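This entry is retained here.
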Amino acid sequence: AVQVTVLPSRRCLFDDPVQICVAGLLPHQVVTLRASLVDESGELFQAHARYRAGSKGELDLSRSPALAGSYSGVEPMGLLWSLQSKAPYKRLAKRNVLTPFCVDFEVYEGHGDMSHLLGKCTNERWFLGEGVKRISVREGRLKATLFLPP
């Protein structure tokens, strides 16, 4: 079975670097990895890249070069920084920092045809660390939010 893992954890802060790995592929198998995220307004953002597995049937995006797609070359975070909406002029924006963006990482056989899903996992990308207190500040014309560490 194909396993997709996000290290060090499937749950992290939005700006934390992650390592995306795929195991259980055939040696030198060509696959497409796709990242998908639906924002708070329901807009779908996606990125994809084609990869060739190593001799042991594994991929590590920090060492494996993307052959084509939304980007090419060795880009450990490429599936995240290249996320785009199909609709023009749409930007990824976060309105509620108390909920995460959930990014689905999916692996498909070959390229072009996204009908044969081999494996997937979801990465929760939070904007507020555990234990951080969020305090609204309203004083006269001042409106702010104070974030206090745990």
In short: Residues 49 and 69 are 4 Å apart (CA to CA). Helices lie at 78-81. The radius of gyration is 18 Å. The longest helix spans residues 78-81.
